[in-house]
Each structure stands twice: as C-alpha cells, then as structure tokens.
C-alpha cells in the first residue's frame, strides 16, 4: 500500500477536506501576511473611520480607520505561531510524560500518574494567568500555558495506549531481536498510538487559538503592538450595537479556524487508524448488501 494512502482516505472524508482546506488557507494567509498586507494594520486614518465594506477596504475599517482585512491577515500570523508553538510544547511534554509513565519502573510510573492527575486539575486559562502574573502577558505565556495544559492531556490519554501496545507480539519480537527501548518506542510504540495522539494534538492547537484570543481579550495574551484576533474582537465589541458587522469578521475567523482544526483531527484519526477504516468499510459493505 502506498505510503500516502492515508492522505487519500483523509481527502475522501468531507470533514477531512474541510479541515485541510481551512488549515492550509490560514497557513497561506499567514505566510502572505509575512511579506505583504493591503494596508499597514497599525496606521490610523481618522477620516476613514468605520468605512463600509467595499473598495479599497474590502471588509471595512474600525474606529481608528485601520483596515480590518489587514488586521485579520496580520492576526493570522499570530494565530499560526501560537498554534504551532503550543503544539510543539504539548508534544514534547506529552510524549515525555507518557513514555515515563509507561516504560519505566513502577515507582516512576506511579509518580508520573500522580503528577499528571495534579497538573490536569488546573485549567489552561488559570495556568496562563498564573504564569502571566510572574512574567507578564505575552504570546509566550499562551504558548507555554497551553503547551503544559494539553501536554498533560496528551500524556494521560497516550500512556494507557502505550502500555497496551507494549505487550503486543511485534513489540516483544522487536525486543527479542535486540532493539533498544528507544528503538522500540520510535519504530513500534509511537506509530501505533499516533492516531490518538493526533486527535489530542489537534484539539490542543484549537484550544491554543481560543486561548490566545481569550487571553488577549482579557489582557494576558498578545501585547497591544501585536496584531491579534482577540485584541481586534476586544476593540470592536464595544461598538457592536452601532457597527455589528465589524465584530463578525474576527469572530468568524476564530470560529472557522477552531472548527477546521477539530474536524481535521477527527478525520486524521479515522484516516490513519486501520481499525476504524476496516470498520467503516465493513459497515458500508453490510449496508450495500442489505439494500441490495
């Protein structure tokens, strides 16, 4: 079977197509915004305040005359940076804790389990506020806090899966063939828990987008000089009764991005998990047989 057969299965799913298109579109917008924007998002134009959507301001302007489309494009850079950064931190923490909690001595496993139970009791936003109270509000606060919060979540879900796969025949055969624990982890254990890990990671990245918007809204996230969908939503929401359309754009951008990440994660799990694929194929065959 082709190495990229999972990609064809992903594209065959409607949720996979939607999630993939949304994620690629946000990434493309963030990349374009790195080099070009229609207008400077920080330029104030008093005479152009609250311009209606049209040319040259396709989505209109805000109360300071700033182009909303440029603010959204610049905010996409912040969103992608936070999502990728939080995903990386969560991956490192989650894999490290799951490995320690599954492949080490019993006293280490139990200590890690207790640590995970303690850390998981703290909500992500609370962790972010605790860190920001010491280091001040910044994007790094969002990245680290979401990374810690969902790294613990990943560890809690992945550790039992690692323990289950650890007693599989192919893992025991690899151990008998002389593979080191690290080689067994890399070749056999992690690939077999990847579907569960991917779903958790996609949820973590989606929550990172929401956390960045929420924390920026509360003043704990992006600084005022950094374009952010949360800051834009905060600036525009006070005018919602006068200019309601302006608030729609940042809210819609956050909603579509989070929805796309969640749906992509679910579709990736179905496309990469062979057991789910076989079940879906068997169900379709059975349904076709019954109809016939």
List the helices and strands and how they pair.
Elements: H1 5-12, H2 14-35, H3 68-103, H4 106-119, H5 124-135, H6 139-166, H7 169-176, H8 181-218, H9 229-237, H10 244-272, H11 274-291
What would you note in describing this structure?
The structure is a single chain. With 292 residues, the chain is mainly α. Helices cover 76% and strands 0% of the residues. It is built from eleven helices and no strands. Helix 8 packs parallel to helix 9. The longest helix is centred in the last third of the chain and has 38 residues. The chain is elongated, with a radius of gyration of 23 Å.
Strand content range: under 5%
Number of strands: 0
**What overall form do the CA principal axes indicate?**
elongated
Return residue spans where pLDDT drops below 50 for at least 5 consecutive residues: 286-290
Distance between the termini: 30 Å
> What structural class do the secondary elements suggest?
mainly alpha
Tell me the series of helices and strands, N- to C-terminal. HHHHHHHHHHH
Largest beta-sheet characterization: none
Average pLDDT reading: 80
Radius of gyration: 23 Å
Quick structural summary:
With 292 residues, the chain is mainly alpha-helical.
Highlighted features:
292 residues, mainly alpha
């Amino acid at each position: 079977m082709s190495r990229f057969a999972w990609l064809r299965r992903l594209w065959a799913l409607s949720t996979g197509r939607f999630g993939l298109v949304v994620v690629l579109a946000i990434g493309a917008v963030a990349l374009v915004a790195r080099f070009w924007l229609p207008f400077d998002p920080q330029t104030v134009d008093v005479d152009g305040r609250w311009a209606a959507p049209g040319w040259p301001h396709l989505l209109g302007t805000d109360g300071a005359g700033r182009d909303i489309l440029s603010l959204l494009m610049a905010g996409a850079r912040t969103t992608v940076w936070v999502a990728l950064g939080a995903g990386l931190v969560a991956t490192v923490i989650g894999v490290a804790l799951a490995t320690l909690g599954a492949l080490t001595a019993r006293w280490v496993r139990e200590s890690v389990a207790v640590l995970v139970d303690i850390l998981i009791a703290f909500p992500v936003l609370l962790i972010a506020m605790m860190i920001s109270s010491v280091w001040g509000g910044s994007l790094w606060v969002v990245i680290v806090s979401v990374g810690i919060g969902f790294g613990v979540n990943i560890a809690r879900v992945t550790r039992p899966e690692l323990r289950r796969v650890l007693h599989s025949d192919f893992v025991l055969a690899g151990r008998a063939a002389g593979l080191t624990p690290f080689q067994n982890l890399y070749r056999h254990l992690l690939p077999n828990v990847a579907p569960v890990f991917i779903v958790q990671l996609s949820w973590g990245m989606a929550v990172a987008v929401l956390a960045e918007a929420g924390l920026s809204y509360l003043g704990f996230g992006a600084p005022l000089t950094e374009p952010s969908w949360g800051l834009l939503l905060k600036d525009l929401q006070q005018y919602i009764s006068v200019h309601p359309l302006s608030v729609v754009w940042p809210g819609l951008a956050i909603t579509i991005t989070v929805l796309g990440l969640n749906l992509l994660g679910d579709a990736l799990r179905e496309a990469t998990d062979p057991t789910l694929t076989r079940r879906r194929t068997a169900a379709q065959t059975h349904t076709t047989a019954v109809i016939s």
